[in-house]
Amino acid sequence: MANYGVPDDNEGLLPWTWAQQRLVASRNYWLVTASRSGRPHSMPVWGAWIADDDVFFVSCAGSARKARNMRENPAVVVTADDTVEVVSVEGVATEIEAGDTARLRGYLEPLVAKYEEFPSVDEMLEFFSSNAAFVIRPDRAFAIIERPADFGPSATKWVWPG
After folding, report:
1. What pLDDT was estimated at residue 93?
2. In the chain, where are the structural domains located?
3. R_g of the chain computed on alpha carbons
4. Using an 8 Å Cβ cutoff, are 48 and 23 in contact?
5. Each residue of 24-42: pLDDT tens digit?
6. CATH class of 27-157
7. Would you say 60 and 131 are in contact if contact means Cβ atoms under 8 Å apart?
8. How far does the chain reach from its first CA to its final CA, in angstroms?
9. Which residues partner with 78 through β-bridges?
């Protein structure tokens, strides 16, 4: 991004902890999926970034377009809701198998803690067990601060070993 003032060196790059903080704190996320044929679909969702595991957890109706897309084409993008301090994560979605309540419970705990609208984990477990639930593991992520003084120096990319 040299034409945008992004330096060639690593000075000023954002640490991954900066991105994690914004992903964890975000109340709403944009989830971008694509069908097998590549038709894009973008929707706001509630979810939880689990910093300890570096994964995003999201659930929706099993028949929802985003669920069908993730089953057909697991390549997705998740972005935090802030458009000034931007974090965009490209990754791969994996569906949690129906009946894997132990795994589901582990992801529900931070989700229930985040959204005060949700009752207890036990009460939500039945609801989420009857829907589709996905874990998204990052392949790469991008961050940038969309303020004139910070734009170039803050542009950062992270890549996970594949």
Report:
1. 98
2. 27-157
3. 17
4. no
5. 999 999 999 999 999 999 9
6. mainly beta
7. yes
8. 24
9. 31, 89
Q: Rounded to whole angstroms, how far apart are CA atoms 114 and 111?
A: 5
**pLDDT value for 155:** 83
Residue 25's nearest CA partner among 132, 103, 134, 110 is 110
Alpha carbon distance 80, 25 (integer Å): 9
Assigned token pair, 126:
């039945």
Three-class secondary structure of residue 62 per DSSP: coil
Which residues are CB-neighbours of 45 under 8 A, at least 6 positions away? 28, 29, 30, 31, 58, 60, 66
pLDDT computed for residue 78 by the predictor: 98
Going by pLDDT thresholds of 50, 70 and 90, the confidence category of residue 8 is low
Q: What is the pLDDT of residue 6?
A: 55
- Under DSSP, is residue 102 helix (H, G, I), strand (E, B) or coil? helix
The pTM of the full predicted model, rounded to 2 decimals, is: 0.90
Retrieve residue 88's tokens. Answer: 């965009």
